[in-house]
Design a protein that fits this description.
By secondary structure, the protein is α/β, with parallel strands linked by helices. The protein folds into 2 domains: 252 residues, Aldehyde Dehydrogenase, Chain A, domain 1 (3-Layer(aba) Sandwich), CATH 3.40.605; 188 residues, Aldehyde Dehydrogenase, Chain A, domain 2 (3-Layer(aba) Sandwich). The protein is 43% helix and 19% strand. Bound molecules: nicotinamide-adenine-dinucleotide. Nicotinamide-adenine-dinucleotide binds next to helix 7 and helix 8.
Length: 500
């Protein structure tokens, strides 16, 4: 479809390799007209796709999964070039996207297909069917940090639910999106089931204002507000997956080596550019020193770079370097101490690991999303205090608890105000396609992944079929006093009881 769309636009932009500054690709800036034309084409494609039925869609989606698996290295190389992340991390990202595609394809009919519902005694003459029908065209707007895994959380589930998709990737990662489009159109050549519109924020805004049936947005909360405002014009519903300031809690009985290893990976992998990355660590007093020793020792072995032995790559979006620097400076200016790295660790385009302690809670390093390889570590008296301080943020995406006691870990996990919590491992929930993914508060709303993720892209349709005439003729002008007396008697028997 891009050939058609290229003819509709003249302006272009470049995607760059953040490690080297080299141009990876040049892409058209699709304007409102081009975006609307794509939505129109998607409308016809969605009717065709939903008409194929569950079985055929499942086969096609499993074949898209097969093509993506066979193209894994090609896609990972493009991710590596456009984001700068290590090639192995890019490969893992594609692996995770593949598992979601597989789950969505295999579970769509079971979760969304027609099922009988018990009508209840007062409507026993009705046969009830509940099914989840596709919405039509889904506009997906994606970020750059996981350019395959993150949008696939919407794309796979939207397609499996029977919709067509128009995807606006981040301006930092358009090449990855075009590879996805190539793979999907190879398996579904008949119709433009999945189209990519490239460009900057204006292209995303045109998609949100367009005649789509839902917008699946992943990005920052400030952009989500703009997208919601644009969607309000047509009452277009939206699912918003935004940023986070995730906490990592370490209890007194936790395995400290494993906890330090997990916290470090959660905070520093992908140069900290992970929505569910670890940004704050709360450690119970009695193990604070031992944990910090382990964390600093392991952190000193990490190195940012572009070579194959580097732990993580550059900061993808140059403007983020200023935010990371500001957070480190603010933490230090307010009495915080850098026990690994410091302000000098920001060496564009890289940031070496930074571990900060004694940082007050109102510092931007503790209250705002940093999105860099930095963490603040805090001493707390108890798990209760850890949870309270972890929850003292407008964000609520995910979190981690390390504790030996199962009940203490489960208790803390439940009380964390977030969409997901992982116990004794980091970000484990993201690798389980059956589990829903999404946030609270500034981290957004709605869910991708799992059965909830499939239903996010479908509308419930309720059908009743009268099998025989009701013993009481209630919804008719022919209703008698006798009918009313019977129903009032019945309702008293069924619902008039007092429960203790
Ligand atoms: P961003 O908000 O800057 O951009 C996201 C997308 O929105 C891009 O494609 C961008 O072009 C588009 N956009 C910009 N202005 C727009 C407008 N006015 N209307 C419509 N679209 C517009 O975010 P980003 O820097 O690409 O991504 C990083 C953010 O995403 C972080 O906050 C991160 O935590 C978050 N994120 C969240 C999840 C999640 O699942 N919750 C996953 C990955 C990233």
């Amino acid at each position: 479809m891009t050939a058609t769309m290229d003819a509709e636009t003249a302006e272009t932009f470049e995607s760059l390799n953040p490690a080297t500054g080299e141009v990876v690709g040049e892409h058209p800036i699709h304007d409102e007209k081009a975006v609307n034309a794509a939505i129109d084409r998607a409308r016809a494609a969605s009717a065709w796709w939903s008409g194929l039925g569950w079985r055929e869609r499942r086969i096609r989606l499993l074949n898209i999964k097969g093509s993506l698996t066979r193209a894994l290295n090609r896609v990972a190389t493009m991710i590596h070039q456009e984001t700068g992340k290590p090639i192995e991390d890019a490969q893992l990202e594609v692996v995770m996207a593949i598992t979601h595609l597989d789950w969505a394809a295999r579970h769509a009919e079971k979760v969304l297909g027609p099922r009988g519902v018990f009508p209840g005694l007062t409507a026993i003459n009705q046969k009830c069917v509940l099914e989840y029908q596709p919405l039509g065209v889904i506009g997906v707007i994606g970020p750059w940090n996981y350019p395959v895994f993150t949008p696939m959380g919407s794309i796979a589930y939207a397609l499996a639910a029977g919709n067509a998709v128009v995807f606006k990737p981040s301006e930092y990662t358009p090449g990855v999106a075009l590879l996805l489009a190539e793979i999907i159109s190879g398996v579904v050549p008949e119709q433009p089931l999945f189209q990519v519109v490239t460009g900057l924020g204006d292209t995303g805004s045109a998609l949100a204002r367009g005649a789509v049936d839902k917008v699946a947005f992943t990005g920052s909360a400030p952009t989500a507000r703009k997208v919601m405002a644009a969607c309000a014009e047509r009452l277009t519903p939206i699912v918003a997956e935004c940023g986070g300031k995730d906490a990592f809690i370490v209890d007194a009985d936790a395995d400290l080596d494993k906890a330090a290893e997990a916290a470090l990976w959660g905070a520093m992998s992908n140069a900290g550019q992970t929505c569910i990355g670890v940004e704050r660590v709360y450690v119970v007093d009695s193990v604070y020193e031992s944990f910090v020793d382990r964390l600093t020792e392991q952190a000193k072995a990490l190195r940012a770079g572009d070579d194959r032995t580097a732990s993580y790559g550059p900061i993808t979006m140059p403007s983020q370097l200023g935010i990371i620097k500001r957070h480190i400076d603010d933490a230090l200016a307010r009495g915080g101490k850098a026990i690994v790295g410091g302000a000098e660790s920001v060496k564009a385009p890289y940031v070496e690991p930074v571990i900060l302690v004694d940082v007050p809670d109102d510092s931007s390093a503790v209250s705002e999303e940093t999105f860099g390889p930095t963490i603040t570590v805090h001493r707390v008296k108890s798990m209760e205090e850890a949870v309270t301080r972890a929850n003292a943020t407008a964000y609520g995406l995910a979190g981690t608890v390390f504790a030996k006691s199962r009940s203490a870990a489960m208790g803390a996990a439940r009380r964390l105000r977030s969409g997901m919590t992982s116990i004794n491992a980091v970000i484990a929930f993201a690798t389980v396609p059956a589990l829903p993914f999404g946030g609270v508060g500034e981290s957004g709303f709605g869910r991708i992944h799992g059965a909830d993720g499939l239903r996010e892209f479908a509308r419930a349709k309720a059908i009743t079929r009268q099998r025989f005439a009701a013993p009481m003729n209630l919804v008719s002008f022919k209703r008698t006093d006798k009918d009313m007396a019977k129903v009032l008697q019945l309702v008293n028997i069924l619902h008039g009881k007092h429960y203790k």
